Amino acid sequence: MNSNKETVDSYLKQLCTGDADSAFHALLEAPDEAVPFIIEGYNRLDPEARATVIKILAERNCPSISLFLETALQDQDDLVWKASVNALVHIGTTESIKILERAKARLSTKANCRMKSWLDEAIEELQRDSSSLNPP
User: Which of 39, 69, 79, 93 is most buried, by CB atoms within 10 Å?
Assistant: First the structure.
């Protein structure tokens, strides 16, 4: 298990400094046991790498990342919260809609209009496709 952590840490560093494409594919194809290590290393990354981690986890269709994505929605960096919105739409569960609605409810009246617009669009897309939503 420790070697998984070391391997994941190495790939996460590559996302920031090395061959990001190779690291992306390695993390995408890593065993399920690596997911907690990917999430653990997330906060040590720069915004571009954090957004990439979100894409990786969404592509892996990890059912346990909903809470992680809800937290990522609160990131101040546009790349990161947009990646989280896109991941929730990609995952396409009823829980995704609930998370997006909670994020929208947390926005203050002075909140970023662009973020509200992204959330509205994502919620509408998921509701439009609600007959094909994945179970939570």
Answer: 69
Low-confidence ranges of the chain (pLDDT < 70): 1-3, 63, 108-111, 131-136
The span from the CA of 105 to the CA of 91, in Å, is: 21
Question: How much is the pTM?
Answer: 0.85
Closest CA to 48 of 24, 29, 74: 24
Q: Which residues contact 133 (CB under 8 A, 6 or more apart)?
A: 92, 93, 94, 96, 97, 126
Residue 135, Cβ density class (10 Å: 0-12 exposed, 13-18 middle, ≥19 buried):
exposed
